[in-house]
């Protein structure tokens, strides 16, 4: 791992929410690195803690009901120790954020240009003319055909894809070093999704930014990401390059996810789509110790799991949690073999 290129380094990050007087972990002991010029995808089913991890990094939790521990070094400073005003300076300037629902992220009462100017006002000393020119340049950069027209419009006058482009324009307005995109294409149809991903990739190349792309869409990951971290029940269960994780998936959860998508996990029979047994437990019901995925693969004997699962290096940079990957097999195959 090239330390000089590391933009963000998470060490042992945990986030717990207070529910009826008790704290429960939504994110547990996460170690991750995001490098310059790279897209790290965080994948997993709904409820695995992907968004919580992202909002933890940028300090968007109500600390009256949230406990956060660990370190998140960004350009040498621990984001988790920053005051609100320090975080306000970082968010929008050095870290840009793109969230799932572009309509709720935009102010319905303000014209697009004013919304872009707002972030420039907060973080730069640009003149009115400079801001105007920068807004048009940004709209062009994110692939809007008529920047002047769009600049004068309100969010409701734009299509979903256009709104998401505007959100990206706002997120990159100050040329952030890191962009966090949480399900940026989920609300969009497939053609528009591909265009938005192209925009993100272009920006990453042009600005040399690092991107954290949160998604449950493995197709998007395969096409876009350089590195992948698979999360289950608040933990990273497998990480590595996209080639490593998709080409040689090891953790039972990763293998199940890949097998549940068309053309996934080619080394196993794929004539029918696999359905992962059960669902992600709510945080109150999450197993507190042992392999959290074990209840969903009950045919694997308890002795295959570590009592306190740790990460194991399969090859340089490719890590998998728990030793159970060595004994895992798909139950449907067992049935077919009979
Ligand atoms: N503010 C909160 N208070 C209590 N529990 C929360 C809070 N935010 C999230 N959770 C719980 O934490 C767990 C992780 O949620 P999170 O949204 O991070 O998952 P996710 O993988 O991003 O899922 P999705 O794709 O649906 O957003 C879930 O069980 C969720 O219900």
TrEMBL record:
<feature type="domain" description="ABC transporter">
    <location>
        <begin position="8"/>
        <end position="258"/>
    </location>
</feature>
<dbReference type="InterPro" id="IPR013563">
    <property type="entry name" value="Oligopep_ABC_C"/>
</dbReference>
<protein>
    <submittedName>
        <fullName>Abc superfamily atp binding cassette transporter, abc protein</fullName>
    </submittedName>
</protein>
<keyword id="KW-1003">Cell membrane</keyword>
<dbReference type="Pfam" id="PF08352">
    <property type="entry name" value="oligo_HPY"/>
</dbReference>
<keyword id="KW-0547">Nucleotide-binding</keyword>
<dbReference type="InterPro" id="IPR027417">
    <property type="entry name" value="P-loop_NTPase"/>
</dbReference>
<dbReference type="InterPro" id="IPR050388">
    <property type="entry name" value="ABC_Ni/Peptide_Import"/>
</dbReference>
<dbReference type="Pfam" id="PF00005">
    <property type="entry name" value="ABC_tran"/>
</dbReference>
<keyword id="KW-0813">Transport</keyword>
<keyword id="KW-0067">ATP-binding</keyword>
<dbReference type="InterPro" id="IPR003593">
    <property type="entry name" value="AAA+_ATPase"/>
</dbReference>
<keyword id="KW-0472">Membrane</keyword>
<dbReference type="InterPro" id="IPR017871">
    <property type="entry name" value="ABC_transporter-like_CS"/>
</dbReference>
<comment type="similarity">
    <text>Belongs to the ABC transporter superfamily.</text>
</comment>
<dbReference type="InterPro" id="IPR003439">
    <property type="entry name" value="ABC_transporter-like_ATP-bd"/>
</dbReference>
């Amino acid at each position: 791992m090239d330390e000089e290129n590391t933009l963000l380094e998470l060490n042992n990050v945990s986030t717990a929410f207070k529910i009826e007087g008790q704290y429960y972990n939504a994110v547990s002991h996460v170690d991750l690195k995001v490098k310059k010029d790279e897209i790290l995808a965080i994948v997993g089913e709904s409820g695995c803690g992907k968004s919580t991890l992202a909002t933890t990094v940028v300090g968007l939790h109500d600390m009256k009901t949230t406990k956060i521990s660990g370190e998140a070094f960004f350009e040498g400073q621990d984001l988790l120790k920053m005051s609100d005003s320090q975080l306000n300076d970082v968010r929008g300037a050095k870290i840009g954020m793109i969230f799932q629902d572009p309509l709720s992220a935009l102010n319905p009462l303000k014209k697009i240009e004013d919304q872009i100017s707002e972030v420039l006002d907060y973080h730069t000393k640009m003149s009115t003319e400079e801001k105007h020119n920068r807004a048009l340049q940004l709209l062009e950069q994110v692939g809007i055909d008529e920047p002047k027209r769009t600049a004068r419009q309100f969010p409701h006058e734009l299509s979903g894809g256009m709104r998401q482009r505007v959100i990206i324009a706002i997120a990159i307005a100050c040329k952030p070093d890191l962009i966090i995109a949480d399900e940026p294409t989920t609300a969009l149809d497939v053609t528009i999704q591909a265009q938005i991903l192209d925009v993100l990739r272009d920006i990453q190349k042009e600005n040399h930014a690092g991107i954290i792309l949160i998604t449950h869409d493995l197709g998007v990951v395969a096409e876009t990401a350089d590195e992948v971290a698979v999360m289950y029940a608040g933990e990273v269960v497998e990480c590595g390059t996209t080639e490593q994780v998709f080409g040689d998936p090891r953790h039972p959860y990763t293998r199940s996810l890949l097998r549940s998508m068309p053309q996934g996990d080619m080394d196993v029979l794929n004539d029918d789509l696999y359905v992962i047994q059960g669902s992600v437990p709510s945080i109150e019901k999450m197993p507190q110790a042992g392999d959290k995925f074990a209840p969903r693969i009950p045919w694997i004997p308890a002795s295959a799991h570590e009592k306190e699962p740790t990460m194991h290096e399969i090859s340089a940079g490719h890590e998998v949690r728990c030793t159970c990957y060595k004994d895992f097999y798909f139950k449907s195959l067992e049935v077919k073999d009979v």
